[in-house]
Every structure is written in structure tokens, then in C-alpha cells.
# Entry
Amino acid sequence: MSEPLQLKAYAKVNLGLDVVRRREDGYHEVRMIMQTIRLFDRITLSKNSSGNITLSTNLPYLPVNEHNLVYRAIDIIRKNYHIKDGIHADIHKRIPVAAGLAGGSTDAAAAFVGMNQMFELGITQDVLMGYSVSLGADIPFCIMRGTALSEGIGEILTPLPPMPDCWFLVVKPVFSMSTKFVYEHLSLGEDTRHPDIDGIVDALSDNDLSGITSRMGNVLEQVTKQHYPDIERIKECMREYGAEEALMSGSGSTVFGIFIDRGKAEKAADACRARFSIRQAAIIRPFNKPGPTARRKHYGT
# Structure
């Protein structure tokens, strides 16, 4: 059998998250600016002769069966390409769970990419992203990585110019948020403050960090801050210590701040740990993809 294949599954944050409307089918249409960051899980894939899919993980509460997105991603490729080999996936988690960082989605993305590499299937990125959207709207972006405008229910992606040089302080409080709960309790009205998504796109094109941070926003914060006021307090703490801006990522509960100076980010991290119940804090760079941007693509089924 071949050597195990190791992959890094990178987290994402939302530089802007706007909810346009609730559709008749219950889904919400969104406009989001997605950004990959250099916080990652490690996925190790290996072949065996069992003919089965097996999983292991460093977190005892994660499912290691068909309820795990990694299992389902592997299963999709095995069935579509008639692969008989058994596959074992070891998932070493560093991205907080249920945190608004796409931890489960990016692990599944790594499994799709890894299966393509391990079996030399030659699947294009577009086709791989098309397979993945059936498991979750964030997975195509996690395969693509970089910076992108996400629309529809998250399945319409337009790659954008890379994030300007900066540092991200990512802080995960001890509490977690349910995405389903947040969206169910979201109320859009005339007084809803919507982030300037188009302005962020323009600022990215101009490589203007202050133009990005001054327009950041997340409409889902109106729900989470009612139940967990520490979200807003953590943001204020980061600003106090020099963050250009701070925001909740996705449906929470992770909060991130954008800093020009790493030293200020370290002081902000220390202050957040001292003042709040923090499960994890990390200071990392954005994960950027160089080169020209591509056209808008729809990965819906």
C-alpha cells in the first residue's frame, strides 16, 4: 500500500456576512466575503484492504461514522469512481468545533481533495466542488480557498483579490452557537444594519485594509449578542488593544480581530484570556491565493 497522505484543512472567517432574505424553502439567501486563514486541522488518509471507510480523531465526542462529513466525502468519491480499497481517515482537530470557522466543512474538503490525489483520479477542482455542495454550502469554498464572494445559500462563488497583509486574532469562547438556532431567530427589518459587501469587494481590489475593516459586519450578531453579550465585549476588548476591527465569524461563537501589528494582537489575546472564558486563541495570517481572479461560478445541484 502507498504511504499515508497528509493534508491541511484550513479554517475560514467571514469578513462580511449579509442575509438578503428568507426563501420559501426555508433557506436564507446570503452575500458573504469568505477568507481562508492559516488555522488548520490535519487530515491523514491511508489505503487498506478492508474495503471499508474508518475514521479516528483526537476529539472523543466527534462521530467516526457516516454522520461525519469526512466519511461522507470519501464515500461519494469511492462510489462515483468505483474504488474498492478501504480508506482510513485520521482527523486531528485544531479548529474549534461549532465555532463559525467551517471546521467540519474544511475537513470534508480536504477529504475530497485527498481522495482525488491518492487515487490519481484527475478530477478538476470545479467538478470536485460540484460533488461537495451536496454535503454543505461551505465545502466548495473550502476546496477553492483564498478570498471569495459567496452568494445564494453559499453555493455561488466569485474569487476575489487576496487579503492585504495583516494578522488575525481568532478567539473561541467556551460557549458555542447552533447555526440552525441563529438563523431561526434572525429577524430582518428596516433597522437591520447590513454590511457593505460591495464596498469590501472594492477595497480588496484596491488592496485597502482600512477600507475592508471599516465596512465589515455580520447581521447574525443581532441574534447571538442577545444570548451571549460576551461576543460584543470580546470585540470591544480587541478594539481597545489596537484591532482595526473585530467581528463574529459565521453564526459564532468565534470572534476575530484584524491587526496590522502582531505585538498588539498578542496583547489583545492576553487581555481576552484574562477577562473572558476562552477555550482557544490563535494569532495567524490569512491564507491567500496569488494570481488573477476567476469568473463567478454556481456549484448548486
